[in-house]
Amino acid sequence: MADQDTLQDQEKRDLAKADEALTTVRPTVDPEEPPPIPADVEEPQLEYVPDGGKEAWTVVLGSSLALFASAGMINTYGTFQSYYETTLLPSSSSSSISLIGSLQIFLLYFGGTFAGRIFDAYGTSVMIPLGSFILVFALMMVSLTQYDQAYQVFLSHGVLFGLGIALLFNPSLAVLGHWFRRRRALAIGLTTGGSASGGVVFPIILEQLIPIVGFPWAVRIIAFILMACLTVSCLTIRTRLPLSGHISWRTAVDFRGWKDPRYALATIAAFLLFYAFFIPYFYIQIYANFRGMPPGIANYLLAILNAMNVPSRILPGIVADRYGTLNVFVPAATICSILILGLWLPSRSSGSIIAFAALYGLVSGAFVSLLPTYIATISPREVYGARLGSVYLVVSVATLVGTPTGGALLKVVDQKHFNGLIIFSGVLTLAGTIILAGAGVVGSKRLRRLFTRRKSSPEMEKSSPGSAPEPTQVAHAV
Predict the structure, then answer these.
(1) Residues 382-414, buried b or exposed e (16+ Cβ, 10 A)?
(2) Do 141 and 160 form a contact (C-beta atoms < 8 A)?
(3) Residues 391 and 371 sit within 8 Å (Cβ to Cβ)
(4) Residue 276 is part of a domain; what is its CATH number?
(5) Is the dihedral of CA 74, 77, 78, 79 positive or negative?
(6) Are residues 170 and 231 in the same domain?
(7) Are residues 62 and 158 in the same domain?
(8) Between 180 and which of 42, 187, 232, 373 could a Cys-Cys bridge form, CB atoms 3.0 to 4.6 Å apart?
(9) Assigned domain for 42 exists
(10) 3-state SS assignment for residue 291
(11) Major facilitator superfamily (MFS) profile domain spans which residues (predicted)?
(12) Domain range for residue 355?
């Protein structure tokens, strides 16, 4: 009898150990809990940032002036191209002259790949002054270029000026992450609004000064204006958080960001959106002249686009700080798709062309300000510059080939070829919008939770009584 009791006690102990082992190996799954995000995808630990105050807004002022002087001059290139074609470089083709402007945009974004990594390591103490010097020096060299010497303009206004912009643009945006989090979209919107303002002011200054003082001195006056603006930038732009102090070119591009599906989808969307982004800027005036718009109005379409860009880079940031970046970015891209396919494509009159220029400028500026804002929200702070630079590497390729592709589609200036150009631009914008919306779906906690519920339901059915043995039954069998 004692042996039987001992045997029963031993059997109970074996069952208890088996239950404990199963509990350890097969933990309970809560269907309400979303699946964990990989460690390299998780959001960084929140740390204190001022999100305002005198010092923070002073940095915004300096960054705005830096983009006013650098990227603002890119938006002015149409005025330079007109002068180069008619006066300074009459022997050069229109496509080769436009390549100078495309090279500036390419170097702006491509250089941002490496400028972002340098910023992560050393901040702005060297890059902002060096970029300012190169920018002013390049314009001075442009003022000394000789008649019909295209290589001089290419080296000074294309290569040298583009390198100066690359050193200024990325750090001026990345430094805002040191000072803002909750109001980051507003800060970036105010900063990128500076480049749109430059695209309005500088063409008017050049148009007024060239007939009075000539092209060389007009460019020098612009260079002196840039010097004043960039001096303020050098004195006000500064970092706040600790820097790594070392740099490795192997980490200039942070490929780990591609493990995050939100980052990967946003980068692909950025490529498509910026592939088509500058096509209206380059060809709207040509289209206006083709449709017989008076020159006095057609010549100001680019200024209208840039003028409307100012509020479109600031207001979306204010709304994005409250409702989320993608909740503003995706609707803005959708509206641009509708404007291109629904307004520009059927436009035949001066009024409809002006309306498209104004509305496209009003909405498309959100692309420039909200892209770095979204990358900041999904990237760890210590590698934000490198990841933003990686996105700009992709964008640089899109901007370099985008407008030449549009030129290849517009072999003949007629309505048929313009329709092909406009449809191409609209379809690319629409495709980028859909992929960008996909990044929002992937990053939605609510959708992940819903997906987890559906996925966990079959698993719960399998573990329900009658479909599989209970843990105690399995332990007893063992």
Answers:
(1) ebbbbbbbbbbbbbbebbbebbebbbebbeeee
(2) yes
(3) yes
(4) 1.20.1250.20
(5) positive
(6) yes
(7) yes
(8) 187
(9) no
(10) coil
(11) 59-443
(12) 253-453
Where are the alpha helices (H) located in 340-383, listed in sequence order?
350-377
In a domain, 6, yes or no: no
Residue 244 corresponds to which amino acid?
S
Question: Does residue 460 form part of some domain?
Answer: no
Number of domains in the chain: 2
Please give the radius of gyration of the chain, using alpha carbons only, rounded to the nearest integer: 28
CA distance 257 to 203: 39
Q: How far apart are CA 332 and CA 285, in angstroms?
A: 23
The per-residue pLDDT string of the chain (478 residues; one tens digit each, 9 = 90 and over) reads 545 555 456 555 655 555 554 444 444 444 444 444 444 444 445 566 777 788 889 999 999 999 999 888 888 887 787 788 778 888 887 677 777 888 888 888 887 677 767 887 778 888 899 999 999 999 999 999 999 898 999 999 999 999 999 898 878 888 888 888 888 777 877 887 777 788 888 888 887 898 899 999 999 999 999 999 999 999 999 887 777 666 666 656 677 778 888 999 999 999 999 999 888 887 887 788 888 888 778 777 878 888 888 787 778 877 887 888 899 999 999 999 999 999 999 998 989 999 999 999 889 888 887 888 888 888 887 777 678 778 888 898 898 888 778 777 877 778 888 899 999 999 999 999 999 999 888 877 666 565 555 555 555 455 454 444 433 333 333 3
Cα separation, 405 vs 107, whole angstroms: 18
